């Protein structure tokens, strides 16, 4: 076999994370000769740290409504071809124990590492070759008449590889400390593919001291709230989430805020209903509460420290509810049911879980993830302008987009 033939791959997957490893395994098992290249010393790091080390690997209810993209219809085809139940079957086949934590979110009972090991095992079954750490320097589209039938060349610090297809699976920018880059976007730009502007999402929000006032002292408290974020006419409109909010010394976090952050833009307010499902009028009009101190009424539904902070915020600390005037009552109710607050910013890429934006889906075929302009070039996973809600949807997108791509590779 000639040297050119020896490294003439059916597909080279650049990025051995969730989408890349899964895609490589499926394609390999469909008979493709696949090489995975990654610049990291250790692969699958994001999976390993995900879900607090337990990896929320899918969501039983994952569907198109759980994704943000300039083209919300783009996800439909891939999501319908590889569903949460398909990944669950795979996990079960490896006897990995898991449980539903909340609203369809499935987590490993033991460790996220089991998902990484499963992906490696799937790659091994498919005869996939994995090389890391390798620096990919450039990719080039070759003339089809070059004699070896290869369409693409990948230049690395360890030599040149030729391949019929390239799969870009280098993820997004969150957590640069574990090797996140925007390499897929660089390649897309070089090839004149459109990019939807990127920003951190599923990320805690920070506040100025004015906005945050006495709440910053309550770091560590978590309460269920209703949050709305975003604006009509903005890229993704308005969202409403019913989740827990966590007070931190830097600002607000917890699932409610992380979800809201994906819809939030600089300068906008977010609105929080601290009372969640508690009926405000029922609480304050209850005759049994009339003679109670305001903070004690609030203490019925909130942790004591938060109850005090709310009463203090409206100068009602130590005042019996019966003695509080109409205007002050209304001010407190407004604070509790529609606290409008303008975040100063997000905690950025270091603390974000995902990247919003990415390679514009209008440049890709939703059935296959292949570039419409450059046959043989695919983009999968987080580098595509598809961002899931919190709760296992981002991994489901990694699996589904990887699967659609692998099927297409095998058909070629
Ligand atoms: C802290 C944290 C917790 C999370 N928890 C969850 C969760 O529980 N559930 C969920 O659904 N989602 C979760 N996510 C999101 C999820 O991890 C990502 O959506 C998912 O990993 C994206 O898969 P991917 O394959 O596109 O990218 P990644 O998994 O990030 O893989 C990208 C790979 O590309 C490699 N790479 C990058 N640049 C280059 C380059 N220039 N050359 C070569 N290789 C390169 C990287 O080393 C990496 O191996 C979490 C994210 C974070 C940060």
TrEMBL record:
One Pfam assignment: HI0933_like_1st
Domain (RsdA/BaiN/AoA(So)-like insert): residue spans on this chain: 199-354
Protein keywords: FAD, Flavoprotein
Family annotation (InterPro entries): BaiN-like, BaiN-like_dom_sf, FAD/NAD-bd_sf, RsdA/BaiN/AoA(So)-like_dom, RsdA/BaiN/AoA(So)_Rossmann
Keyword Nucleotidyltransferase: no
Cofactor(s) the protein needs: FAD
Segments forming domain RsdA/BaiN/AoA(So)-like Rossmann fold-like: 10-407
Name of the protein described by the UniProt record: Flavoprotein, HI0933 family
